[in-house]
Structure formats: structure tokens, C-alpha cells
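User: Teach me something about this protein's shape.
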Amino acid sequence: MSDTVKFPEGSQLQVVKTGDAGETVVVKGFDSIGGTIGSEGKLNTDTVLSDLQVQYGKSALKDAGERELIGRWLADDEGQLELNAAAEDGVEREFKLRVGTNGPTWTFKAVLASFVMAELEAESGLRFKAKMGINSDNGLA
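Assistant: First, the predicted structure itself:
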């Protein structure tokens, strides 16, 4: 698991609900996500017997990996209720993560494995933790 990435004030996580309407809701209390913003490229080794050093080539495969969302627990927040529903039904959702109040937005699709109450942190109140696997990445816009 990567180190926790803290976002600047005004950052916002949105999740698109399943169904025909495709309503987008904000996840209130969102605080951090592990890893980088975007998918990391992969390298293939292309070494043959005559090579004296490992040779690499770029792979078309991208890997945004598993992430851990953390935020302030709000039991009646529509966004957190949707995260819980996503963990229950296992259906892929689209997410939008805006960095800061007017920074770039990262759009990606992910599946949630869990949505749980995390350990109580001093002076922070209850926290949620959601484990997600990112399946596709539309990049930053």
C-alpha cells in the first residue's frame, strides 16, 4: 500500500450512482487517498541471452492499483451511503476527484471491496476507510 496522499483544502471526491439517472453525489468528509493521481505505467523486460544488462520496453498496461480512501464518518451523507452500497453490491462506479478548489480533476472507474469505520483518531472524530481497486483511468482534466 502506498503512503497516504493528503489533498489541499477544497478538494472534492464525487461518485456517480448506478442506474439510469447517473446522479453524481459528493462524498462529504473525504480527506485522503493512497497512491499517486493517475495510473502508473508498467515496464516489460526484454532481455535475451546475448544481453549483458537487463533491457526494458514500455508496456501498454497501466496500473492505478488498490487505494484506500479515508475521511470523516458522516452516517447520513449521501456520498458515503453510496460508497457503502458500492462495497455491498460490487458494481463498478465512476469517480471524480478534484484537487483543490479549482485544480485538475481525475476521473476513474473503480470497485469497492469494503467500506468500514476506521480507528478513532485523537481530535479527528470517527473516520471511514474504503478499499478500492481502480479499473480504468481517464486521466486528469
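Now, about its shape. Residues 78-89 form the longest helix (12 residues). DSSP finds one helix and ten strands in the chain. If you'd like, I can walk through any region in more detail.
User: That's plenty for now, thanks!
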